[in-house]
Amino acid sequence: MSATEDRARAVARGLWADAETRARPTGDAAAIIDTVLTQLESGLRRWVGAEGYAALLSRSVALTMPCQPILASIADLGGADRASAGAASPPLDAVVGREAVVALLVTMMSQLGAIIGAPMAIDLIELSGTATLRALAGPDDTEIPS
What we know:
The chain is mainly α. It is built from 6 helices and no strands.
């Protein structure tokens, strides 16, 4: 593994750990995943726009899915279609969920890195996915004050 991959994996694990802390007291994998993805979407949309984020997520899910098929059962990634069709799925194991989301985040950093460079992509995802740092950036520019 390269130093860039190591750093991307460390950032992804850090985002998971941060979300795990904020998802307490429930702490279940679904709540943690929702926290990670919501935080990341909110932060990245400011930089790449809604369509850019949707494209990045969609492409990253497609690339990660063969190695992490559990991603198909995550509602925030399109698994809601299956859930709404009445298929009951067992609760997601936290370790399995963590590894799948870490792999997805590393893929997102890699995909974004192909456009803006790996170091900047890793920094941007770390900044976008961290609640404290994002709060320092101020309100989203796309929001119109009322």
